[in-house]
Amino acid sequence: MRTEIFDPRTDPEPAYWQALRRTAGLRADWDWRVLAAQAWGARTIQLITVLLDGDEPVGVVNAAWLGAPLHRYSFNAAGSRPWLGAVHVRGPGTGAVPGWWLADGVPITVLTTAYARAMRRELGPGCLALVLRQVTAAQAATVGRARVVRPTEPVWTLPVHRWGGTEEWLMSLSRSRRSNMRAIYRKVAENERLEIVRHTATTEVDEVRVIEAMRWNDDKYGGKLIPRVRILSAYLRELLAQPDVHSYSYLDRENGQLIAFGMVFDHPTVPIVRSWTQRPLEQGGAKYLYFYHLAKQIEWAIAGGKTGVELGKGKSPEKQSLGAEQTDQAALAVPIRPW
Questions:
Q1: Fewer CB within 10 A of the terminal residue: the chain, N end or C end?
Q2: 196 and 185 in contact (C-beta within 8 Å)?
Q3: How far is CA 108 from CA 120, 135, 139, 157, 230, in A?
Q4: Do 145 and 204 fall into the same domain?
Q5: Mean pLDDT, range 334-338, rounded to an integer
Q6: Residue 105 backbone class (left: φ over 0; alpha: ψ -120 to 50; beta: rest)
Q7: CB of 64 closer than 8 Å to CB of 45
Q8: Residue 175 near residue 321 (C-beta atoms within 8 A)
Q9: Is residue 137 domain-shared with residue 170, that is, in the same domain?
Q10: Which CATH number covers residue 315?
Q11: Ordered DSSP codes for 72-138
């Protein structure tokens, strides 16, 4: 098996990329223009590696090269390329989903052997370890003894194929949650100041205003020692323009303020509720909009005959109360041997 390694900032899109995306079912964040924009805003170098059996792509991996020295913001600062560290495999722009796809019959051990060795050749002897985010227990068990496995937050998925309509879904909930959801529907219907705008594949959204809104979420969850890298407007602009991205702007009709914003990545079977941010309550936010937004995605998925809706990580009690089921995940770290 051979590998082709790309830096999406400077390398052109491979000729086979669109076909590979279709085969692998890779969503909007794997579009080459989106990858390039995301890489420019990252804290360190981002590499896309394609695994090939002859001329046939059988795997693809997104990874960051993390290590010392680590800069607080962007790797574009002079001397910011790490010289000692690990390859961190995660989904583009998010750690909530795996950062790889492998064809049927290709074991995950390909990543800890052929892929890991290719990264060491590319990055040098300071590339000492491989970290895979969001592996399952069964996948981790296939790797040798020289490994470290640590649980991460589970991902929550709502199996919408079980219900024939919104009312069936609501009736499956606990009495208190069902009553709460009906009250939320009424609040939204009666709120004359609230305007909800849905866009698909759009260039009409003011990405600067959305990025400012995303800081509400970053300020709530971001770290203090190493703050989150701020999203670049170019990245969000490219992402929102993708044909499988739906965005939702919740606006105050009277003053035009953005109250909340969400994005959903469409998919033939399991769309992903990718991001959500809302104005703090003390600044005029409305907490119930989070549940309303999820409910509308559930309605849409049921009507569209989807299998499920992935709701991401975090807020486990809230997602469980809506009928979502968890998939346990872990981070797997293995040393990269020099031979």
A1: C
A2: no
A3: 18, 9, 7, 23, 32
A4: no
A5: 87
A6: left
A7: yes
A8: no
A9: no
A10: 3.40.630.30
A11: SS-TTSTT-S-SEEEEEE--TT-SSS-SEEE-TT--THHIIIIIHHHHHHHH-TTEEEEEEEEE-HH
Under 8 Å between Cβ of 183 and 189:
no
C-alpha 203/C-alpha 180 separation (Å) is 35
- Mean pLDDT, all residues of the chain: 91
What is the helix (H) or strand (E) element at residue 51, kind and residue range? strand 46-53
Task: Write down the H helix ranges in the chain.
Answer: 17-24, 32-40, 109-110, 116-123, 137-141, 166-171, 175-190, 207-221, 233-240, 288-303, 316-321
**Confidence at residue 72, expressed as pLDDT on a 0 to 100 scale:** 57
Rounded to whole angstroms, the maximal C-alpha distance in the chain is: 67
Q: Which amino acid belongs to residue 170?
A: L
Amino acid present at 224 = K
Task: Enumerate the H helices of 142-174 as residue ranges.
Answer: 166-171
Question: 187 and 69 in one domain?
Answer: no
Taking the mean position of all CA atoms in its chain, how far away is CA 53? Answer: 28
Q: Are 129 and 172 contained in the same domain? A: no
- CATH number, residue 44: 3.40.630
% of the chain at pLDDT higher than 90: 77
Amino acid 22 reads R
Residue 68's CB is within 10 A of a number of other CB atoms, namely 9
From the list 15, 8, 11, 84, the residue with the least C-alpha distance to 41 is 8
